[in-house]
Design goal:
The chain has a single domain, classed as Pnp Oxidase, Chain A, CATH 2.30.110.10. It is built from 4 helices and 8 strands.
Length: 166
């Protein structure tokens, strides 16, 4: 799948993603943490976190909802961009940051990040594709290796709000 096809899928789901983010933020995390994504090939009880990072070019704060897993005590997200041939902007922003914000339900944390390598990456990828099987299709549709990002939660911070995001 090329970038244009992936963009069309994201555009069709765009309102859903924005609605999801608004629900998560407006509820303080009491709603939006667990979502039914079985209609798109996922699981009925799929966990979502919010990540907050600063744009590496714009300097603006961005908040994005993402499917996550907990692997060995670290939070894992997948930079799939629906199988597009380019990385998502949020991933590139993370690479330019030492720490980011992560909100899980009603708790938020400053977090450091890393990319798993080698056998650990294989194990984490297998785990994440079990949580959300469409990642397998996304990987087959692109020539890039879809990145995984693991977050170690550090100190607690205030939960995210809509006025913090662009």
């Amino acid at each position: 799948m090329g970038d244009a096809e992936a963009a069309a899928i994201r555009a069709a789901r765009g309102n859903w993603v924005n609605d999801h983010l608004e629900t998560y933020l407006a509820s303080g995390g009491t709603r939006g943490h667990i979502m039914d994504v079985s209609a798109v090939g996922g699981r009925a009880l799929t966990t979502h976190c919010l990540i907050k990072c600063v744009g590496r070019k714009s300097g603006k704060v961005y908040i994005r909802p993402l499917i996550y897993g907990n692997f060995g005590g670290e939070i894992v997200v997948v930079a799939s961009k629906g199988g597009a041939d380019t990385h998502p902007e949020w991933y590139l922003n993370i690479l330019a940051s030492k720490t980011i914000g992560v909100q899980i339900a009603t708790q938020a944390f400053e977090a450091t990040w890393r990319k798993p390598e080698g056998e650990e990456r294989h194990q984490v990828w297998t785990y994440m594709t079990h949580l959300y099987p469409p990642y397998l299709t996304y990987q087959r549709s692109t020539g890039r290796q879809i990145p995984l990002v693991m977050f170690a939660l550090a100190r607690p911070i205030e939960i995210f709000s809509a006025d913090q995001s662009q």
